[in-house]
Specification:
The chain is 55% helix and 17% strand. With 830 residues, the chain is α+β, with helices and mostly antiparallel strands.
């Protein structure tokens, strides 16, 4: 150790980078999760949240809630806000609140005035506050008027902070907040309207257990059909996304650490190779193999400890560096701190990975004889490793895998990642072996630089395996992510946009459906209007078992989470095909029947003949699955997971959902339809699909940017390992260069030989990365996302260029110094 850290800088950098990535991701994730938990009451707006769809709580239900504590009622729906002269309009997320809102936290506006004053009726007109986006979208100022439904609403302030925004889930459009009386004046709420009624409760008994209160509510009103939430799960959607993204980034960090493990092995191997005379002296003086291994294992543990400590320091400061940014993006107080568990997990990953990769070169040194070590031409790398060391390395690798599975929120994803990583290592070794065999059997060429390059690829101690391993994983990850991103954006921006309708129309009342269709025909002659009845319902039981008691795989859990849109139909809907069972007759009048989407049914373990219980408008209905059908979700047409027989909801109040396919993307034609429908049917919500797809495309672009930035960590690790691998081969290259120069080779010849060698290795690695990345992307896009797969040749070209630049650049940077070595000192050691 007194000799300094020469030869171990790459070792330290690889360990530090991987540990820092994992520590930072888990620390920031824990900070966000704890912030949500600590502010759970403010985010939720109380201790409990009871949600009902398309109906108000009954007097008995409301009285029972009032017995538990203070109650605040609100209503949420989407609607159009239009200018008084009907010259422009925008989709808004309307939230109507009562005088008790908010029970916890505070609403902030500009100008800052009491909320009750801002929303009150004044001169026969109700007030509202709106997000800045709505003011910008319609070019409005405070004090201007917008028309919502049948009422003129005065915008009296800009809404700058909504305390319970996160508990409402994904907000699709700008917020428009008004009073419940103001909502009544708009006449937007009609029988069957898609409106959610929310009741927040602040418990009067501070010692009451919220979970027990919810259980009591369920027992008291078993058919209420309300969704319930407590303050400790105030924003479940956000928390799930944090967990998923944290897991993904942790796996990316682990990828960087595993790639860095190759650098650890290279550094240890190169260091031990340089210590051959010392090890030979130890053995000549009677030291056993275990003694030699112990010396260098202690040294490696000390160095690994230094790298881990540096990584933990970087990971520990990450929450303090990101807290301000996160607070500006997510309205949750990010109270940065040091998170011991996150740091402990990262330290364990670093230690286990360093040991797993260091044991292999140590094991080879264990049994090398002193005579072989004294011979400079010998190679420790050719010595076979004992099964003991190989077994210990395998056990450590299994511990790394077990730790990754233990901390994973989705173990299936973790399993796939670990299996893919293991397969990648095996395949990369096979690729390196194949490249060496091909080079060994290549015909003899006349070009001296090319002949030397081919020989360097397959000779003992060649850099082939190290270069292919170091670059292969990082470039494969980049190709995979770039291809998935390209296919997603292509599908959303081009394919889906071409197939999707121009508009979705929501909340068309029964009495309006025929006049609505007639008006559409006037505004857009020749267009295709598709309309279906729509209700909202929550699945409460499968085959008589409460869904809360079922263990459902993550891919199917979304069907049981929250309310689902449902419909009824006498015939098979468009874009659907019955795959199992039979459709009911047009005049069917027997027990309630339901058609279930085949893929979702499989994920939930359902089949024809099973029963599904759905709560609709406070009434539980059990229907038998009559058939399964495949659904073309990607068509962007009207599709439902569940389609019921018409007799199931006979007499139930409901609205209609419609799509309009105009056959053109002309903005002015779409604007004419939007303006005409908004003016003639003010209670109908119109969604322009192009704007929705643009919003999704922007979201995908932001996620892709974040994912690529995270994946860059793995690429940086690959570059570090590559530079370390090339540096580790310098000792052998010095002898080769001196001997060749002595035999008459010029510097130019050697540079061309080495450049050709690096180019061949880089090209071989790029070909593998392109093939493996394309295959992985195909699996994700086609099998998991079930979208059309398309490979962009630019991805292949970029990968090839990056691979060549890295290998040739780093290779020649290290080789240039080697070529300047004087011959005499080196020749004396041969």
């Amino acid at each position: 150790m007194r000799g300094g850290l020469k030869g171990f800088y790459i070792f330290l950098a690889c360990i530090t980078l991987g540990v820092a990535s994992i520590a930072a991701v888990n620390s920031v994730s824990q900070m966000m999760t704890e912030g949500i938990a600590q502010e759970g009451r403010a985010i939720l707006g109380g201790d409990l949240r009871f949600g009902l769809t398309q109906r108000l709580a009954s007097e008995e239900e409301r009285a029972w809630l009032a017995e538990q504590g203070a109650v605040s009622q609100s209503a949420a729906l989407r609607s159009m806000a239009r200018l008084p002269d009907a010259s422009d309009q925008a989709l808004t997320e309307v939230k109507a609140v009562d005088g008790a809102y908010p029970l916890v936290g505070s609403v902030e506006t500009e100008p800052s005035l009491p909320l009750a004053e801002l929303l009150a009726e004044r001169d026969g007109r109700y007030g509202a506050v709106a997000a800045a986006e709505l003011f910008a979208r319609l070019n409005l100022d405070v004090g201007d008027i917008v028309r919502v439904g049948d009422a003129d609403i005065e915008l009296r302030a800009v809404l700058t902070r909504e305390p319970d925004l996160l508990s409402d889930g994904f907000v699709f459009a700008p917020r428009l907040m008004m009073s419940l009386d103001g909502l009544t004046a708009t006449d937007l709420v009609q029988p069957g309207s898609l409106v959610g009624h929310i009741y927040k409760v602040a418990l009067s008994d501070a010692d009451a257990d919220p979970a027990q209160v919810i259980e009591a509510a369920t027992e008291r009103f078993p058919d209420a059909g309300w969704s319930t939430r407590t303050a400790d799960r105030a924003a479940p959607a956000l928390q799930r996304n944090i967990e998923r993204f944290s897991q993904f980034l942790t796996l990316v960090g682990l990828t960087a650490l595993i790639v860095g493990g190759v650098g650890v092995a290279n550094a240890v191997n190169a260091y031990l190779d340089a210590k051959r005379p010392v090890i030979a002296t130890f053995k000549s003086l009677g030291a056993g193999g275990n003694f030699v291994v112990a010396i260098y294992l202690i040294q490696i543990l000390i160095l690994a400890g230094v790298g881990i400590a540096a990584g933990l320091v970087l990971g520990a400061v990450a929450p303090f560096l990101t807290a301000g940014f996160l607070e500006s993006v997510i309205p949750v107080a990010a109270n940065a701190s040091i998170y011991p568990m996150a740091l402990l997990v990262a330290a364990l990953f670093g230690l286990l990975t360093a040991l797993a990769f260091a044991l292999l070169p140590l094991g080879r040194t264990r049994d090398v004889a002193a005579t072989a070590l004294f011979r400079q031409g010998g190679s420790a790398a050719r010595q076979r490793i004992r099964w003991t060391y190989a077994g210990m390395a395998a056990v450590l690798a299994l511990l790394v895998a077990g730790l990754a599975l233990f901390i994973a929120s989705d173990r299936f994803v973790a399993w796939v990642f670990l299996a893919a990583t293991a397969c990648a290592f095996v395949i990369l070794r096979a690729v390196a072996f194949a490249v060496q065999k091909i080079a060994a059997r290549a015909p003899r060429v006349r070009s001296t630089p090319l002949r030397l390059a081919i020989g360097n690829i397959h000779r003992p101690g060649a850099l082939t395996a190290s270069v292919v391993l170091s670059l292969g994983l990082g470039l494969t990850l980049l190709v995979t992510l770039a291809t998935i991103d390209n296919d997603l954006r292509r599908e959303i921006g081009t394919s889906i946009a071409a197939r999707a309708p121009n508009f979705f129309f929501v909340d068309i009342q029964n009495a309006e459906i025929e006049p609505f269709a007639e008006r559409i025909a006037e505004l857009s002659p020749g267009s295709e209007l598709q309309s279906v009845p729509m209700l909202r319902g929550r699945i409460t039981a499968l085959n008589g078992t409460d869904v809360r008691e079922l263990e459902v795989p993550p891919e199917g859990a979304w069907v049981l989470r929250g309310d689902r849109g449902i419909t009824y139909d006498a015939s098979v809907p468009a874009n659907s095909t019955v795959t199992e069972g039979e459709w009911w007759p047009a005049d069917y009048a027997g027990e309630p029947l339901v058609s279930f989407a085949a893929q979702e049914a499989g994920e939930l373990g359902l089949s024809v003949g099973d029963t599904v219980t759905v709560n609709v408008l406070g009434r539980s209905i059990t229907a038998r699955i009559a058939n399964l059908r495949s659904v073309e979700w990607e068509s962007m047409s009207i599709n439902f997971v569940m389609v019921f027989s018409p007799n199931t909801f006979a007499g139930a109040p409901h609205a209609w959902l419609a799509t309009l396919q105009m056959g053109t993307d002309d903005f002015e034609a779409e604007r004419a339809v939007l303006t005409g429908i908004t003016q003639d049917f003010p209670s109908v919500t119109s969604v322009r699909v192009r704007e929705a797809l643009d919003a999704v495309n922007d979201l995908v672009a932001q996620l892709a940017l974040a994912i690529r930035a995270a994946a860059a960590v793995a690429v940086v690790a690959s570059v570090l390992v590559l530079s370390g691998a090339l540096a580790a081969g310098n000792r052998g290259r010095i002898h080769d260069a001196v001997v060749l120069k002595t035999l008459g080779a010029t510097r130019s010849t050697l540079i061309r030989a080495y450049a050709t060698e690096y180019a061949l290795l880089g090209a071989a690695t790029a070909v593998f990365a392109i093939a493996a990345g394309a295959l992985a992307a195909w699996f994700v896009v086609s099998r998991i996302m079930q979208l059309p797969y398309h490979f962009d040749p630019m991805v292949a070209l970029t990968t090839l260029v990056v691979s060549l630049v890295l290998t040739i650049g780093f290779g020649l940077a290290g080789t240039w110094r080697i070529l300047g070595q004087k011959a005499a000192p080196v020749l004396r050691e041969l």
